[in-house]
Amino acid sequence: EVKYPDGNMEELSPERDFKVDVDESSLILSSKRWINNNNALRIFEGEKQTFKDFNIEVQKKVNQVNVLTQKMNTIDGIVNDLAIQTEDVGRKLEQIDLSKVEGLDPQTRKYLQDIQTQLTSDTLTLQLDDTRVDDTRGYDSSISFKGNDGALVGWITREVIGDLKGLSIATKNQSGSLVNSVKLYDNMDVYIQGQCFIRGTDTSIFDEIKRQLKPYILGLPQGRTMVRSANLREKASIGDIITGDKIDYWAYPSENGSGYISASATQAHTMAVSAEDARKRWRIMGITRSYYYTGYWLQEVINFDD
Q1: Across the strands, what pairs with 121?
Q2: What mean pLDDT value characterizes the chain?
Q3: In which region does residue 145 sit, left (phi positive, over 0), alpha (psi from -120 to 50) or beta (all else)?
Q4: What is the model's pLDDT at position 295?
Q5: Rounded average pLDDT over 13-30
Q6: How do the domains of the chain map onto residue ranges?
Q7: Between the N and C ends of the chain, which has fewer C-beta atoms within 10 Å?
Q8: How far from each other are the two terminal CA atoms of the chain, in whole angstroms?
Q9: DSSP 3-state assignment of 107?
């Protein structure tokens, strides 16, 4: 109870007569009958309190760890399920009695037998017997390669010619057709673009290279090492190298009726200089001098870089 200034007593009710001022952190006793708050009685005044901010980043990291834990648990469950299913498949394959399976063609039965064998093998092999009894579907032991657009760009397949067996590698040419580029036979022969590159009987690859290049190399200097006599448009010395356009004509020395070597006597033995000879370079190997005539003996300078 409280006693008002006018002397009246009144029992207070919390819902009616108490007021909490959050902004001022105070508990105020007031009477709703009074209009003027100055008559209110302030019975408690406390200190303002500030709540601490919760670290949001810590909560975020905790949430991330929780999500990661859930995903790991999910993956662990999937792996366990896969392991169980794999074991079930293995047991079912081992229980298959192929002799009692009806409706399967011989080739399919062979595939199932291969699967059972490979389950206990250290390596898996791609193989197909030469004999394809009762197989009319055209299976072939080959590996196909496709480009990004799904089109066939090459393959590796078996090559059988009589008793000779090997592998053939086909690639797409410029016209877009697949052609056999490389063939490897069991007798160690190697064919590239249809030509034998290595023979199995060769001791090394260089034997085949020498065999094919020998005629070509010997043919390069053929007819080009001889010494020829010519009349030049200008004087030169032994050892000089001149271009073919300095040659006036080819002329082999001969003597006239007086026993002298002369230009007129060599006219019967002259030859014109071809355009090809005019483009070549020639070295002065010797000079024949007489009273009426000077002839130069020339040899072609062979430069394989030309």
Answers
A1: none
A2: 73
A3: beta
A4: 92
A5: 68
A6: 2-45, 58-123, 142-219, 227-300
A7: N
A8: 128
A9: helix
* DSSP secondary structure letters along 185-215: ETTS-EEETTEEEE-TTSSSHHHHHHHHHHH
Please compute the mean of the pLDDT values over residues 271-284 and round it to a whole number: 93
**3-class DSSP state of 176:** coil
With beta carbons less than 8 A apart as the criterion, state whether 255 and 261 touch.
yes
**d(C-alpha 58, C-alpha 65), whole Å:** 11
Which range scores top for mean pLDDT: 45-54, 210-219, 294-303? 294-303
Q: Are 26 and 43 in contact (CB under 8 A)?
A: no
What is the Cα–Cα distance from 85 to 92, expressed in whole angstroms?
A: 10
Cα(168)–Cα(186) distance, integer angstroms: 12
170, 159 contact by CB (below 8 A): no
Name 39's Cβ contacts closer than 8 Å, sequence gap at least 6. 5, 30, 31
Pairwise CA distance, residues 30 & 28, whole Å: 6
User: Going by C-beta distance under 8 Å and a sequence separation of 6 or more, which residues neighbour residue 286?
Assistant: 227, 238, 296, 297
296 is written with which tokens? 């130069």
